[in-house]
Amino acid sequence: MNQLASSDFTEITQLIVSARQRAVQAVNTALIDLYWQVGQIISRKIEAAEWGDGVVSQLAAHLAQTQPGLRGFTRANLFRMRQLYEAYKDDEKVSALLRQLPWTHNLIILNQSKRPEEREFYLRLAIKEQWSSRDLERQLKTALFERTVLNPAKVSAVLSQIHPDAINVFKDSYLVEFLGLPHGHAEADLHQGLVQQLKQFLIELGRDFCFVGSQYPLQVGGRDFALDLLFFHRGLNCLVAIELKVGRFEPEYLGKLDFYLEALDRDAKKPHEHPSIGVLLCASKDSEVVEYALSRSLSPALIAEYQTQLPDKALLQAKLHEFYRLNAPYDDVIDDSGTRV
Predict the structure, then answer these.
(1) Do the Cβ atoms of 124 and 146 come closer than 8 Å?
(2) pLDDT at res. 18
(3) How far is residue 295 from each of residues 158, 193, 247, 281, 328, measured CA to CA in Å?
C-alpha cells in the first residue's frame, strides 16, 4: 500500500474543521439566545414591579440548587443578561449581531461602550475582524470609535473613485504602541519593528490585509528601488504599498509614492487585480497640508499617522461629545455622555 502525503487528506480535514466551527457557533448562538430570553423575563418582571432586585438573588440560588453543575447564572450574570436585553431590545438589526459573538465579547462591548452607535460599531468590527477578547479590549482602549468618527481617513479623489470602499478599510491613524519605540527613533527602527511584530501590525491594519514583502524590489530602467512594505488587500483586490516616514508629512513624499504605484501597476500587478493603493505612514501631519496635497493627486493614495503611545481616551471622548453637540439636529437633546435623547 502506498504511503500517502498529509496533503491527500486535506479535503476531509477541512470538512472536520468546518463542522467543528459550525458546531461551536451553533452552541454560542443558542447560549446568547438563552441569555437574551432570561434577561427579557427579568427585565419585564422588574419593570412591572412583580419582582424586586432581591428576587434575582433568590433565582440565582434556586438555579444553583436545582441545576447542579450549571454555570453562568450567578446573581451578577443574571443582571448582565437583563442589561443586555435592555440595551438592544429596541434595535432588531443590532440585536441580531449579538448571536455571532461570544458572551465575553458582548460583555466587553456592553460595559465599555457608552453610545448605541459605538456598541454597533464594535459589534460589527469584532465580527468582521474576528478579534479575540484581548484584541477587542485593545481596540476599545485605543479609542478606535472616537478616532474613526473624529478623524476619518483622508484619501485622494482618485482613490475614492477607483476604490469606493477604501474609506471603510483605512484609518487616519494607526496605533503601534506594541513596538515600544523610543522618542527620536529612526526609520529603520520603525521598519524593523513592524516586520518583527507583523502579526500585531496586521491586526491593526485589518483582517483582509496579507503581507507580501519588506523592502520590496522594484526595477525601473537601470535603477533599483525598494518599497518599504507591500501588502495585498483581499477585499479591494489590489496591492497596497506603505512608505514609512518618521517625521511629519511633506508634499514631495507623494511624488515618490506615485512613482512606486506606477511601477507596481506596470510590473507587479496581476491582470485581474485593481490599481494599487499607496499609503504614506508618517509620524505627524498637518491636515490642511494633506488636503492641499491630495486635492490634485492623480494616484489612489492616502496619508495616515502612526502613533507610538495610546491616545488620551478621556480627551477624545470629550471632543466626541462636543462633535455630537454641534452636529445634533435642533430637536435632539444631547445628555452628558453625548447620547441623543
Answers:
(1) no
(2) 87
(3) 9, 32, 22, 18, 29
